[in-house]
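Appendix B. Raw example, untouched.
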Amino acid sequence: MWHDNETAIDYLNFGVVADACASMLTQAKGEPISIGVSGGWGTGKSSLVKMIATRLKAPSGVVPNESNKPANDFVVLTFNPWLYQDFESARSALLQIVGDEIVKLAKENEKIADKVTELWRRINLLRIAQLSGEAALTLTTGIPIGALGKTFNSIANFFTSEGTTDEIAIDSEAITATKNGLLKPKELFSMPANIQAFRDTLESLLAELEITLVIFVDDLDRCLPQTAISTLESIRLLLFIRRSAFVIAADNDFIKAAVKVHFDGAGISSDVATNYFDKLIQVPLHVPRLGLNEAKAYLVLLLLEREAKFGSLTLEQFERALELIPARLRNSWKGETINQEFLYDLVGANEALRSLMNLAEGLASLLHGSSAVNANPRLMKRFLNTVYLREALSAPQGIKLDIAALAKWHLLERCDESLAEAIAGQVHSDNDGRVQLLADAEEAATKQVDLPTPFKSNPFTRQWLQLPPLLGTEDLRPLLHLSRDSGTRDFGDDNMNPDSRKLRDALKNATSGHQSLTDLMNKVGPDQTELAMTKAWQSCSNARTWRRNEEIVMLVECCKTFPVLGKKAAGLLEQAPLKQVGPGIIPTLGAQPWAREILERWVDVNELSKPTKAAIENLRKKH
């Protein structure tokens, strides 16, 4: 299984981008800079941020001294506001982290001890001002009127934790603070002046320490809107201070939505919401979407990583792949691709590994082109996790399936759920789990001719049908048994009791509803009725003309007795070969609540005959 955490190991060809960002931070030479790393969920923002941070850190074990000290040391801090959500203000937490780091760096430097104390005094004043919720705070009165009861304990906690306290008395006359001078009595507090003093003190300390403070902010798009905005507001306090830099990873769409929530009622436009984030960022960087080559390389590296862990691939072979694959991707503009010859050279003559490389090639094209996955690295990783989890579940149950078959079926579940359900609905004991319709479709795809209904003639479906192994002549029951997490599976009459089998036969012969049919449904209950309805529908598929009301009685009557079955009935109806659907059944279907949405979709499909479309239009007018 692959974990879902960020990594500094480059599987996504982000190394060039990370190098460029690190170079920009280095070339700033102490000038303030902010870089925004934007991208949707799962695109690799956190990994890219970690790669940039790794490039800025000194090699492990190297202690800078006067002889080897670079001109501009970087001190890297990573701030994750999501960790503080509901526990502490993100603004306070960020200031605390910066203060703690400065204290740690300055502990051996007595010359700047007073400045460090002054920085902490400013940080605490800003934290108190935030707690009070007021625009101003005077130390003459201690705290703004009306907020005393709410914040007394919080303020006391700030100062009692800093050192030994002579006395803390907050009243309308004065405030006495700690011995170390964190607060001065009867000092007029000005928010703008304190913010500027904080910035000046921090800038002076960074210059004295001869460091550049680089703060990486990640996981903003996991936060609630209030926390996200609070974090961005705290960043403003530190932004554009000399010898400081920010790298902020966030989903632009999420930030826009958070800004709108924050300013709810102000009627701000999308442009204003976008500008809010843009004003914090000097260098915008969008995480690139994986191309087909990158998607293939990513799958290959994930699969080879697993094989190396299990000993099927040597560590030397895996390290060679880690070196050669990114190098080839960097030269993709020259026409170098991740092709079969290259992959076979990586894994040698091992047939099992070569089969995995073939699988990666086939999957990459479909996962890259599918809108359900869209080459999203996190979704691709989860896809493989599901496939290998099912493989792990197969052996204890005596099921023998190769990874390629498991991957092919899960690919269809992930990218075209309705087609997967339609095929699964054809699997039962009567045909030993084999679906002739699927075999026909695979043959049609190979011959490049029209596909049978319900297969859509689009690139994904045609590529999926030709992806090895072919499943049309295979028993699909083991595959479906292992995929029970994605739906309830029934492969025959095994789960049906005698009464439900009786109901199945009655439904097959029914030409209209009658009381004895209803009584039998009530006797077996909704679950067994669903099985009976499904089996009866499948058994009559070859004889169905799609023109007579008698042919849909089984769906109509079952849903009348148990309306909860409407979703299942709609799924069965949706498999209809639209060219064959006649206008005669439209009024009956239009009277069923569960069928109306399907009729609305049908009316826009070219395959439907004009008389049938006209019948649907007439229904619209009546309603």
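End of appendix B.
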